[in-house]
Amino acid sequence: MKTRTEEMKMLVAGQWVLRDDTIDVINPQNNERIATVPKATRDDMKHAIEAAQETFDSLDSWPTHERVRILKRVSSFMMENQEAFARTISLEGSKTINEARGEVARAAQTIEISAEEARRMQGETINFDQNEGSENKVGYYYHFPVGVVGAITPFNDPLNLVAHKVGPAIASGNAIVIKPASETPLSALKMAEAFTEAGLPEGMLSVVTGPGREVGDELVTHPLIKAISFTGGTDAGKKITEKTGTKHVSMELGSNCPVIVLSDADHNDAVEACVDGGFSAAGQNCIGVQRVYVEKDPYPSFLDDLVKQTKRLKMGDKMLEDTDVGPLISVKEAERVESWINEAVSKGARIETGGTREGAYVEPTVLTNVSPDATIAKEEIFGPVVIVEPVDDLKEAVKKSNDVDYGLHAGIFTKDLNRAFYAVKHLNVGGVMINDSSDYRIDAMPFGGTKDSGIGREGVKFAIESLTEKKVVSFKISDPF
Prior knowledge:
By secondary structure, this protein is an alpha/beta fold. The chain is 38% helix and 23% strand. The strands form 7 sheets. Strands 15-18-19-14-13-21-22 form a 7-stranded mixed beta sheet, sandwiched between helices.
């Protein structure tokens, strides 16, 4: 049955608008057009930014209780309409309907946490009298919003990653302009509908759909934008930093996440976590499992069980309840993943299972004997491929884990607390998950990485810190008696 094509409007400066030029939104499963969105121009983006600044200025001091009220309404709206949001996520992207339902719940929680953190934006008193000559000074510091935030989001979590931009921005009293991924703009527009329904002042949120080279460049270079929050590829992130100047910048970029499995680990837990962490969302996950280092004694049985469990995954129609793995975001991306697999094989890698492509689908793949100079060993695959390699000991596993240009998350399975703490100390990453895969995150924790994996931290409280300034207030007082 052919899906009806919807003509969607974008939200610019408080108004839902169409444009003559449009961008097709394609279901990657069958290459069917499911919607069109406006192809915004540089002028559209300028208008959104300038209106955001005007609205921000007009609100002067936007009360916390109003921000909390709006955010709570949005969170409730999302859960009341969970199935509609989930269907949108799944149709425009790669996630199965079950994965999409989970994303809606997480996004609603992200907005709920944002409401809670809005209440906790507190400063501290300062002991000025610690300095000789300042005995007659008292004061404090507090947080105030930077103004207008520019945000760019990727396709792989088209709702929750938008929530991680909008929630903290609104919680801290900022206006925000979002440029969502052109492949998956519908989820961002649907969230904008929720904020409109909740009574967000016009102009405080715009969702501008258009090509990155035009509207994206305007967003990161416009002088009224005071902070940039970007989630996406490392190359794109580096180009953005060349253009932003002195703006606040927060970036979550690429990864190549390792998991270490030691001989004392719970074998079954490790296998299950690595399969789930490697192949959920068709492997298009920045903290997904890409490399697994296993001590030599359990390596044969671990590999055998990992392959068996991987073969049980059902690849197919995203909208069916029993589907485990959907398509990649496009045929082009699937072809890239296929080419990386083939390159690894040409350099001696063995395909233990998978390795085939049909359209935008890539079969869940386990590789062994991968050369360290293969692209798939060094770069982020962003597809359903897991590399498994035996190691002599923990020290070797940590060394190999660190031997890439990324450092987002890592996992380690062990029952030995001392070995766990060795990994915590020596893994050069932003997060170490003990007895879990790299693919673990809650939306309240600081999230980000080292090296080419990014700048700063997301997670609502920590994002708010990057979207606010600290202002110090000092009173000079005199004793009247």
